[in-house]
Fold each of these.
Amino acid sequence: MKYFIATILSKGKREQLPLYAENKKDAQEYAKIKSSGILIKVVEADEPLDAQFLRFKTNFLKNIKKKKIKPDALIAAIRQLAVMTNAGISIYDSLSEIANASDDEALETVFSKLAEDINAGHALSTSLENFRFEVGNLTIAMVSLGEKTGNLDEALYALADMLEEIRSNFIKFKKAMAYPRNVMIAMAVAFTILISYVVPEFKKIFEELNAELPLPTQILLTLENLFNNYGLYVIAVLILFFISFRYMVNNSRNFRYGWHELLLKTYLIKNIIKFSTLNRFTLVFSELVRAGIPIAEALDTSIEMIDNLPLKANLLSVRVTVEKGGTLNKGLNDTKLFENMIIQMVRAGEDSGTLDSMIKKVAEYYKMKFDAIIDGLSEAIEPIMLFFMASMIILLALGIFLPMWDMGSAVQGR
């Protein structure tokens, strides 16, 4: 956003109104809305330091407080909106009714503002762009599809089904992670208690002997000193790090890209992200093609709803290939994301004119792959869990018993 200063003549006096806008034309429109006076001129200017600080503070607090709509509430609201739209009730009335009846604060705020935008003449998909964080990319993509095809109710029904499936997968993921998470928490609590209360007792003995301590013992004593003397500072640093990290992810595209790239290289997580993304991409793309949307435009909408930036950038090359006259299967093959079997299926769909149904089968294949990963998640995590448990136990055992063994050997040597 650029910084502009609008000069306005109001009640015979000139006033300067600072504002932010993408370009000068938008700045002029905002100035007319914000002031009832006569607009004289709008010029781009350097943003003052106090305004920069205020904007940073506002964005920082906004990102901390910003909340997504609860999945259950969003699914119920979309189903209700689909039913009301199908019954011929206006979008404005539907959104207002859902907002007034909702107990979810975030949903009430978003749907109320959407109703205001609709009343002002904006399209629903355009208004939703302002709430991408709260509703998600998939919601915007499917609403856009409904507006383009003229079947908004059908698109909303399909969206609700997709969100329910995503919700179901998330619940499966939580259940699969419950046992490893609980075990790791129990181990962390036990380790903290030992470090805080048991290790200090051995520390006194070691200090009296003035013996040279082995590395595991030195690590334990360092951790004990950190926990007992700087514990609150460590917690404060962790909280500050979390808030700063969240702010950077939400506001810096380069930082977010690097974070997403790291996730795509992380054991297990990379496959979960990859297959869930490709499942949603192919599912939305098949719906768009089935509705008669041109392939290039369908790719645009499908790619737009992808959250992971490296995958999004990779799939954008498919659109470039198609725009240059290349086939869809060639564009998909160039991304190196799809197996040869998938490329052959897409090629067959293009040759036979059944691309939409073939892409739908591809979506089902990726759903199957994703479900298989989720179902086997608990078993896949067990080796990592065992490694951490073994590391903690070995560190404690060696840290405490090695010096004692050394003392025993010294006594016997005498």
Amino acid sequence: MIGSLSKKIEFLTPSRVDDEAGGASLSWLPGPEMWARVERLTSTRDVAGDRNNSLRRIAANLRYRADIPLGQRIAFENSQYEVVSIESEDDRRLTLICEEVLA
């Protein structure tokens, strides 16, 4: 890929699997890939109980798509990220602000 969209990101598709107890679990399966420009952003802190986690954040700039909801997950460089903000100045480009999903 030539130009500023030089990194591949992969959208992850949610899959709900029912269990025998009447509940369900959600897993994320590989989905479509897109070219993007990815920038690392300042990390944020997540305090959960006695743990103080540092969450990595990225901004993924890509061609405009109208089908990306908040909460969508993407895979980039062996990590999963959740889309927490979607920004667009026009119908040509889109910026996804994403936070790393900790296992």
Amino acid sequence: MDLDGSNVLITGGTGSFGRRFVDHLMHKYATERVVVFSRDELKQFQMRQRFPISDYPNLRMFIGDVRDRDRVFTVMEDVDIVIHAAALK
């Protein structure tokens, strides 16, 4: 699948799969925008350290929970592909 030019949303983007998938997207594809959606502020902070906005301006991060329907619809705006990697524990 060619993701070049796509807007990709990854729910649970700071989990183990999500982190690896974001890394893959950032280095293999020329995505228009990658949106990480997760509820863990610390992991988002750590991920932002790994992917600084100055080097990765197309990476966006949002705090939220997949059980919050309105928040999910907000982050899905203009998204072409959704990778659902969020786990409810």
